[in-house]
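Hey, I'm writing a tutorial for new members on how sequence and structure tokens pair up, and I'd like a real worked example in the thread rather than a made-up one. If someone can provide the structure for the chain below, I'll link this post from the tutorial.
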Amino acid sequence: MTKMEEENKKLTKKLKDSENIISQLRKENLKNKEIYEEEEEIEDFAEDPDEQIMTSELIKLNNENVKHIVKIRLIFWHFFSLEVAPFFALPRPFWAFLLDI
């Protein structure tokens, strides 16, 4: 090989290495950008009391819905147990505290 071909190979290898480094840095930059945007959203949420109130109201509503679903399931199970296992039909079953959620 001539000296020029060897120099060309070295430069080509350096170019590929540089391209790899650049692509890795771009990926890292994208990740950092996503993290920054998420942090900005969190800060915006923390600064917006209306958004906080809406979110807390949604959480309360969801909790109420879950309580109602649990009660409905327990009531259904209670009536089902009257048919299947009458000994579960005590005046205040051991699991009745779950209805007081």
